Amino acid sequence: MGGTVTAVSSNGEYSFTKPNRSSITLLAGLGVEGDVHAGVTVKHRSRVAQDPTRPNLRQVHLIHEELFAEVGQKGFRVAPGELGENITTSGIDLLGLPVGTLLRFGDGAIVEVTGLRNPCVQIDNFQDGLLKEVVARDEDGNLVRKAGIMGVVKEGGVVRPGDPIKVELPPEPHRPLDRV
Question: E-strand spans in the chain?
C-alpha cells in the first residue's frame, strides 16, 4: 500500500496556512525543520496553554488531497498547505490508518502516525462553513474528523512533491486513530 506526496509546506511563524515549498526536511524526534510546530514538547498554542511539558505527538500534519475534491463539491476551494498541513498526500486512506503506522517517504524519512487532527474554529475563520465539512457524523452518530492526521518523525530526511510513500502497518491488533 502506498501513495504519493503532492505538496510539502512549512511556516516558521504561527499562521493557519503554510506556504508550499520545493522540499521540507524532517528531523527525527522534532518535526519539520524551521516549522513553528517542531519540537519535542507540544507547540500548538492550545496545547501549550494546557501543559507545555507534554510530548509533541503533532510534529507533522498530513492531509489527503482527496479531501480538497470532496469539499470542492460543496463549493469550497482549498489548496495544499491552506489547512496548515506539512505534507499533502494522494492515494492513501490516511484516516483509515491505525495508530503506529509508519509512512516511509522517498529517500528514507519516516513518520509514525499518532492520531487525528482535531479540527478547530480556525477552519471556519479560513472559509466560513468549512469546519462543518471536515467534521461530520457517521451513520451511528459517531464524530468523524476528516482534517488529516498527525505524526512524529522517527527518521529524518528530505521530503519533496512527487516522492513515493510506502505504508507499513503496525502489528495487530490495530488501534483506530483518535484525536491527538
Answer: 2-9, 20-21, 24-27, 31-32, 60-64, 87-90, 102-105, 109-116, 135-137, 143-145, 149-155, 157-159, 164-168
Angle made by CA atoms 33, 39, 42, in degrees to the nearest 5? 140
Distance (Å, whole) CA 180 – CA 172: 21
Q: Tell me: the pLDDT tens digits for 56-68?
A: 999 999 999 999 9
pLDDT in tens, 40-59: 999 887 888 889 999 999 99
| 174 found inside a domain | no
The rounded distance, in Å, linking the Cα atoms of 116 and 66 is 16
Q: Which amino acid is at 33?
A: E
Q: pTM for the complete prediction?
A: 0.96
In a domain, 178, yes or no: no
Looking up residue 77, the CATH number of its domain turns out to be 2.40.33.20
Look up the domain containing 34 and give its range. Answer: 2-168
Q: In 99-160, which ranges are continuous DSSP H helix?
A: 122-126, 130-134
> Residue 90: is its pLDDT beyond 90?
yes
